[in-house]
Amino acid sequence: MHTIQSITEQLYWVGSSDRRLERFENLFPIPQGVSFNSYLFLDTKTALLDTVDSSVSQQYLENVTHALGGRKLDYLVINHMEPDHCANIEELVRRYPEVLLVGNKKTFQFFRQFYTLDIEKNQYLVNECDILDIGNHKLQFFFAPMVHWPEVMLTYEKTEQILFSADAFGTFGALGGNIFADELDFDRYFLDETRRYYANIIGKFGAQVQAAFSKLPLSSISMICPLHGPIWRKDIPYILEKYERWSTYTPERQGLVIAYASMYGNTESAVQYLAKLLSERGIHDIRMFDVSRTHLSYIVSEVWKNSHLVVASPTYNMHLYSGMANLLDDLVALGLKNRKFAIIGNHTWASAAKKSMEETLSSVKGGEVLASMDIRSSLKEDDLAEITAMADTLAASILEGRKS
Ligand code: FEO
Q1: Is residue 34 very low, low, confident or very high in pLDDT (cuts 50, 70, 90)?
Q2: Could you tell me the distance, in angstroms and rounded to a whole number, from the CA of residue 388 to the centre of ligand 1?
Q3: Are 194 and 297 within one domain?
């Protein structure tokens, strides 16, 4: 059965959700699933915006067929040429051989790299700011390279002021009937996943998000239709403000994340002691993670939210323990900026972890290592003065940040 939902008089959601897929990009756990959104205008001309992942093709093609109701498909706008959105282009061209595929040079270059179907006669090449008139609706194309791939376009519908935002404003989490953010308890069920999606998928490209926003009529947007997750038709400044913070690497709050690696519990015990001292100093809602237990994407997301990060790890093979090395590599690769750090290394006969963490975190732009210490095997009475000083420094920095 089709699962089409009406958005405005001539615009329909024809996407689908997947709750079986274990990992997004075969990398990020998605325990609440994910939606792949696609939108269809039934105007004088018909225009579909993007397709969906192959995992939901059956439902999607049923939706498109039913929504078209026997009409032919005139245009397929390809805002993003990543396979979670373009897996059905070939099938749609086979079904609607006259369809015009709307994209830019990179779109069609990537199509030829992924697929084999000859689409030469279907290509409708657009340039920046071109407008496609489909009747009551006028689709204008803004290029948004690296949000999240180089070919990405954002489509702005001028009559109803609807932004089709590609991956921007997307989130992990399937949709079940309620396709609008204002129909959901967004803060409770989607905000953390929206941040995790942003930080891990688009986090590296903050400058490009800012560049794209500078082209758009942000004050004249009545609705945001992303490729994943709910549609925004109310409270648009709310999600814009989140994106402004995330894309400028500005913490949402003065708060603390503790990420540790621990082989036998001794490094964990040290950070538990530190956390206790911090709690006594008024630091609340400390977020603590074992890098061997929690998928790094969740830790990255919390780091994006909070101002301060403590990392603690043993030395392993004269190197940094791999779980911690992966987390720090990820944070650097994602271009983290403007955070304050404290470091605890642990070693039994030769120290490497502390130096490695210091070197990595000192490369973070706008970052500052507030305190750093090394312990031998386990925290002992001799270490208490140093770890207490670390707690004092961290607490003072967080509480000072809350005042400003
Ligand atoms: Fe949802 Fe960049 O693909």
Answers
A1: very high
A2: 45
A3: no
Q: Is residue 404 part of a domain?
A: no
Domain final residue, candidates 247, 282, 310: 247
pTM over 0.90: yes
Distance 4 CA to ligand 1 centre (A): 22
144 lines ligand 1 (CB under 6 A): no
Query: Residue 313, class by beta-carbon neighbours within 10 Å (0-12 exposed, 13-18 middle, 19+ buried)?
Result: buried
Q: At what angle do helices 206-215 and 236-247 cross, to 10 degrees?
A: 140
The answer, yes or no, to whether any atom of ligand 1 lies below 6 A from the CB of 74, is no
pLDDT of 125-145, one tens digit each? 999 999 999 999 999 999 999
The string over 325-356, giving b where at least 16 C-beta atoms fall within 10 Å of a residue's C-beta and e elsewhere, is bebbebbeebebeebbbbbbbbbeeebbbbeb
**Nearest CA owner, ligand 1 atom 1:** 167
Note the pLDDT of residue 200.
Answer: 98
65 and 129 in a single domain? The answer is: yes
- Indicate whether 144 belongs to any domain: yes
- Percentage, residues of the chain above pLDDT 70: 100
Domain ends where: 190, 213, 247? 247
For the Cβ of 50 lying below 6 angstroms from any atom of ligand 1, the answer is no
Are residues 114 and 83 in contact, defined by beta-carbon separation less than 8 angstroms? Answer: yes
Q: How far apart are CA 341 and CA 370, in angstroms?
A: 6
Mean pLDDT of 156-166: 98
- Do 236 and 283 fall into the same domain? no
Task: Give the whole-angstrom CA distance, residue 283 versus residue 272.
Answer: 14
Digit-coded pLDDT (tens) for 356-367: 999 999 999 999
The domain containing residue 341 runs over which residues? 257-396
Query: Which structure tokens are listed for 7?
Result: 């958005």
How many A from CA of 228 to the centre of ligand 1? 8
Q: What is the pLDDT of residue 404?
A: 79
Ligand 1 center from residue 201 Cα (angstroms): 8
Asked whether 84 lines ligand 1 (CB < 6 A), one says yes
